[in-house]
Structure prediction request, 422 residues.
Amino acid sequence: MNYLPRNLTFNDGVAFINNHSLLEVSSEHGTPLYVYDWEHIKNNILEFTNAFGDDVLYRYAAKAFICRKLVELLNDNNWGVDVVSGGEMATVLSAVDTLENTLFNGTYKTKEEINFFMSNNGGHISVDNIDEISILQDIANKNKIKQPVILRINLDLGAETHPMVLTSGYDQQFGISIDVAEKALKEVYNSDSLLFSGIHVHIGSQIKDPERFRKAMEECSLFLEKNKASVEREIVFDAGGGFFSPYEGDEDSEDLTIYADSIRSGIEKNWSTDYKIMIEPGRAVINNAGLILYTAGAIKEDRGDKPFILVDGGMSDNPRPALYGSEHKLFNISPNKSKDEKVFAVSGRHCESGDLLVEDAQLPIDTNTGDILMSTSTGAYTFAMASNYNRVPKAKVVGISKSEVFDLVKRQSFEDTFAQDL
Ligand SMILES: Cc1ncc(COP(=O)(O)O)c(C=O)c1O
Prediction:
């Protein structure tokens, strides 16, 4: 099942990743616990690289999940990172000592962040709006550099996706409208401190249909062809992220080579000189390689039309069910459980009635207090969105390779949750 970590196996109901028992991992490292199948992540990086080719600029979207060891792994594979904040860029810098292969995205970039990026020799900045241009110019001038920038345009062309993860379309706040983009392009082109380096779209997340990428790239190449006089060097076509990644069942994504071919054919429809492709995959690299382990607490039979299982985590470690109604398949990985199942509601520990991790979870009828529950397809937008709601410490993150279980992010202590209080 392709929504699960590739190296996940079961033995008498107990789950293993790369032959390490997740029951043992949970008792050694505690729960809630984020777990990544490290070999699966490596494989995903390789699959993208094989499908798109070595000369593509890979900018992994840190927003899906970032930690220093992941940045090192990406860097070892010649992948850079797409960042949207000072925190993300500082993480990259501390892991690999350079921001050269980093793309700085986002609707609001503080002057401090822009300066941090430029003064550390940052790669590309994606301009989200026309007001940003003069600020970028000022800071580039002060740093005495000519900063490569790409323009993020909004094509009013959405992906077939959940409204909350749609990032393209007339009523979406991201990017520059195509009719304003010409003016923005000229401003950048006439600037002494900015170097126009390409065009950028991100049409949304969970895009199943590669045709959408082709259409988006066709519009980008048409726009640049029309404004060719303003384009002075090899151009980057940044197709964004949003590659589909299944959450449950037998859903499958298209072969990545089909996405790659669609992107190329969209560009080449209207553009005949040299160019480079940039992509920003997040979820498709990390989501299915990740799991969250919880310990079941009380089983509450006296409320609602099905029993509640109360677990030791919830919306602070995975806000996605509360935020988007996302569904994650749950498994009880404790040994010797019944093959017969019934429906439970699995509730988080937070003081919100919306903190339901799974509304209708099919689990063994003898699921009991102390059992370990495994929530799947939880590698992306979970730890990255974690909070200290109710001053619950953020959970630990571990990776599992063939040879070892290793720490990626340590568990917060109670004291960490008030460390900034005065
Ligand atoms: C600009 C941009 N690039 C890349 C991504 C990553 O998308 P995904 O994780 O769906 O690949 C996002 C997600 O919102 C984004 O806004």
Observations:
- The first strand starts at residue 8 and ends at 11.
- Residues 42 and 73 are 8 Å apart (CA to CA).
- Residues 61, 63-64, 82, 105, 167, 202, 205, 240-243, 280-284, 380 surround pyridoxal-5'-phosphate (CB under 6 Å).
- DSSP finds eleven helices and 21 strands in the chain.
